[in-house]
Amino acid sequence: MIYISRQEHFNAAHKLHNPKWSDERNKEVFGPCANTNWHGHNYDLIVTVKGRPDPETGFVIDLKELSTLIRTHVIDQVDHKNLNLDVPFMAGQLASTENLVVAFWKILAPEVEAISAARLHSLKLYETPRNFVEYFGEE
Q1: Are 8 and 47 in contact (CB under 8 A)?
Q2: CA angle (15 as vertex; 42, 30 as ends), nearest 5
Q3: Residue 1, Cβ density class (10 Å: 0-12 exposed, 13-18 middle, ≥19 buried)
Q4: How many whole angstroms separate alpha carbon 114 and alpha carbon 139?
Q5: Distance CA 83, CA 54 (A)
Q6: Which residues are catalytic?
Q7: Whole-number Å distance between alpha carbons of 126 and 132
C-alpha cells in the first residue's frame, strides 16, 4: 500500500462559543478563543490517500487532480471566511478544529473515490504550527 499526501493552505476566522453557556463559562473554557470579535488562523491541511499505483501512470492518484479537488471542494469554501458565519457545512456546529476536520472528511472522501481507485486515509489539519488534529474517518 502506498500513502501519498498533498498539503494545502487557507486562512480563516472563528470563535469558540457554546450558545448554551454564559459568556463567562465560554471564556472560562475557551479563553481567548471565545473572543467576541473573532480571531484567525493560518491553517494547513494535509490530505493523505492510500492505494496501489496505476500500472499505466505509476500514480496512486494524480496530485494535480487531488489539489484541484481539495481547493474546489474545501479550500475555496473556507479561505478568508468566518467559519462560524460564512461556511454552510459548519452551520450549527462549534467551529473547533476537530469538527472542521470531520466536515472536511465527509466532503473529500467521496470526491477522492470519484477520481481514483485510491481511498482517503487521513486528514491532518494544523491550526497553528504546534496545534493540529489528525483524523482517519469513522472505522
Answers
A1: yes
A2: 105
A3: exposed
A4: 20
A5: 37
A6: 33, 80, 127
A7: 4
Handedness of CA 111, 116, 118, 123 (dihedral sign): negative
Task: Indicate the DSSP class of residue 90.
Answer: G
Long-range CB contacts for residues 7-10, cutoff 8 Å, separation at least 24: 7/44, 7/45, 7/46, 7/47, 8/44, 8/45, 8/47, 8/67, 8/70, 8/71, 8/74, 8/75, 9/42, 9/43, 9/44, 9/45, 9/75, 10/43, 10/45, 10/75, 10/78, 10/79, 10/80
Query: pLDDT tens digits for 37-93?
Result: 999 999 999 999 999 999 999 999 999 999 999 999 999 999 999 999 999 999 999
pTM, rounded to two decimals: 0.95
